[in-house]
Amino acid sequence: MEIIDIKVGMSARYSQTITDSDIKTFAGLSGDHNPVHVSNEFAEHSRFKKRIAHGLISASFFSALFGTKLPGEGCVYVSQSLEFKRPVYIGDTVLAVVEVESVDLKKNRVFFETKCFVKNKVVISGNAELYVPEKG
């Protein structure tokens, strides 16, 4: 999609159910083996009472949306703010939503509001800035 086709209010969505395998794979990729994510015994004694997913698993769904749907192929992350509001547990289905807030045609930048939901409750909120290259 060309940047001139992107308008304020456009949005894209992606959902995925978090599995034990997702958490273990992410721990292996990231090196984050915090026991609140990977140990049932540890997590039972935490404030969450059971294992929680790494927050960046859910946040990574924004990247999936940006690279494949809006703005699409070739775009590059410039920045992303994140506020983690609620935990995500194994078996939760996360819905990631990105919505265009503004477009800067001179700098080829698109600014988004980003949110993840579980059961209609916000679990992550933030904002992102993407660079969209000019089409050849």
CATH-level-2 architecture: Roll
Helix content: 25-40%
Report, as a whole number of angstroms, the end-to-end distance.
12 Å
CATH superfamily: Hotdog Thioesterase
Total beta-strand segments: 5
| Number of structural units classed as domains | 1
What is the helix/strand order?
EHHHHEEEE
Strand line-up across the major sheet: 1-3-4-5-2
Biggest sheet details: 5 strands, antiparallel
Task: Return the average pLDDT rounded to an integer.
Answer: 97
- Radius of gyration computed on alpha carbons: 16 Å
Coarse shape: elongated
Explain how this protein is built.
This protein is of the alpha+beta class. The chain has one domain (7-131): Hotdog Thioesterase (Thiol Ester Dehydrase, Chain A, Roll). Helix content is 25%, strand content 36%. The protein has four helices and five strands, in the order βααααββββ. Strands 1-3-4-5-2 form a five-stranded antiparallel beta sheet, covered by helices on one side. It is elongated.
